[in-house]
Specification:
Layout lengths: L3 H4 L13 E2 L1 H30 L8 H25 L2 E2 L15 E5 L5 E7 L10 E3 L3 H6 L7 E5 L4 E10 L4
């Protein structure tokens, strides 16, 4: 009899699906990246691979091997962006309840030392576009969602529990 571990040795569960929301600005950035990869970067790398292949023995040709690897990475990202952009929902309008934190909101938090921090709640595809962007799927994003002014926001970090007070909410940049 074969053990379960042996049968499932390479198995990896599928990743959790992230939220399918994006701001209009985030959509523009993803579409520009897709356009750059498809129209500029991929043709450049394809040309370089073709030139490397023309040099002969491909098995020992570092430029050819690296170029093929790079092409695979570009194609993987293009597939991801196309699929993601097809299934994503662009949230361009502020919600009716503008005094609470929802997707796209700019909000200001005060920590226990009185320090103020400004963030924007965005989709998981755009949190790294700017330092103040926080993914709605992150611990802070989940903790602040639906909160109103003067509400306490509490979430766990690997080191401790963090507490903030929500002091301002806006759907225009703070």
């Amino acid at each position: 009899m074969v053990s379960k571990e042996r049968l499932m040795g390479r198995y990896r569960p599928p990743p959790e699906e992230s939220s399918k929301y994006i701001t209009p600005e985030g959509e523009v950035v993803l579409r520009e990246e897709l356009d750059f990869l498809w129209r500029t970067k991929r043709p450049e790398v394809t040309h370089a691979v073709a030139e490397a292949a023309a040099q002969g023995d491909r098995s020992e040709n570092a430029e050819y091997i690296y170029g093929k690897k790079q092409l695979g990475e570009i194609d993987r990202r293009i597939r991801y962006l196309r699929k993601r952009l097809d299934g994503i929902r662009i949230v361009a309008q502020a919600p009716r309840a503008t005094e609470t934190v929802h997707f796209g909101a700019w909000f200001e938090l005060r920590d226990s030392q009185g320090q103020l921090k400004v963030f924007r709640l965005v989709g998981p595809d755009e949190f790294d576009f700017a330092a103040e962007n926080i993914s709605m799927d992150s611990p802070l994003g989940l903790a602040v969602m639906g909160k109103s002014l003067k509400d306490e926001v509490v979430f766990d970090t690997p080191d401790s529990q963090v507490r903030y007070t929500l002091v301002r909410v806006s759907y225009e940049k703070l």
